[in-house]
Structure formats: C-alpha cells, structure tokens
Amino acid sequence: MGTMPLANIQEYWSKNQASHITFYPKRLQEIDLRRFFWMLHAKIVSAQSTNSTRLQQISGYLDYINSKFLNYFIPSEEICVDESVAEFRLSHIIRKNQRNEVFESYTLADSNTGYICGILPYYGSLTTQTLIRPDLPVSSRIPLYLYTMLLNKSPDAQEHHMFTDRYYTSYILNNELRKLKYHLTGTILTNRKELPNAIRKPNLKQKLIIAYRKNNNLQI
C-alpha cells in the first residue's frame, strides 16, 4: 500500500469504477487488515536515520507488551537480569511468504519462576542512547533501567535481591542498587573498577574462599 497511497483504508476496497483496485480485495478482506493494523501497527522509522533497525518498526508493539507484564505479575524478592534471544516467524500477508527473525532484548525476570517482568529491546547503539544515568557504564545502566521499570509499577518495592552474570556485576552497580535498598549477587570480571588487587590477580588454592568488604559491599 505504500507504493499506492490513498486518502484512507476504505478506498483500497472501493467498488467505485473510477477508483476500484482489484489487487487488495482478492488477497485480504478489509476487516482482517484493520485487525492487524490495530493489533500490530508498525512504527514509521525515518529514512534519514542511519542507525535504524528493522526491529524498531514494531517498537510500539513491544512497548505495549512490556507495559502489560507487571500488570499481571509482581516478582518475588529474588530477580535476575540477563540477555534473551527469541526467534519468531514473520509472515507477509500480501506476498504469502515467511522468514525467520531474531528478537534480542535485555530482560528482568523472577528468579523462582522464570517469568519475565520487563524487557529492554536491543536496537544497537540506539538502545544505549535512551538509557538512564549516562554517567555510568552501559553494563550498569541496563539493570538500573530495568529495575526503574519495576519501581514505577511498584513504588513500595524494596529489599529485592538481583542476580547478574559477569557482564553486569560491578562495584559501581552494587553501590547504585544499595542506594535503592537493593542487593546484588553475581560473578564478576577481574578487570572491573574498584576491585582489590587480590581479586584482580587471585592466587587461590583449591577450595579456598576469600572475602573482602568495602563499606557495605562484600566481595568473595
């Protein structure tokens, strides 16, 4: 329809001899198109944007889904942040062909049930530009963004315990979460800032556990 723009949707199914188009009525009923239009309305991405991605075209639909998660489920005290990759099949109604697409996102999930409570779709560099706290590393901004979504829905949520992998875990993130009365546990890369030298260059014997404390942060 983008190659044949008309004033409104009804005109594509018009029976007026002056404007009748045979292509669309033979392939799709008007009521079916309206259902798809309102359920999955693609977003117009500016052609001038050099960083735009195909996934952005359904960002409105993803935002709608994301807004509904916490309406039906509030996570327990233990939650986790990780990446998620989902494959789905996209069908083209007019051309009658299908292709597989991959949807990548950062997710906030309940640790006990695995139920997803919030998503942050990955649009490449455009995702990091919209994150909160630009003064922090991206690996810290992602969990804070997802947790802020939870706080916006449940302002009284406190004393949660977040579990992360080594990409997110850092002393900086832990400090920010502590300000929100939040706990953090996770593996960590040894090149993270604010880590003691004994952790950066460990010389541990088998079955030996060493713990370090700095303010309210415990590193093992």
From TrEMBL:
InterPro entries, sorted: PGBD
Pfam families per record: DDE_Tnp_1_7
PiggyBac transposable element-derived protein domain location: 1-214
Name this polypeptide is given: PiggyBac transposable element-derived protein domain-containing protein
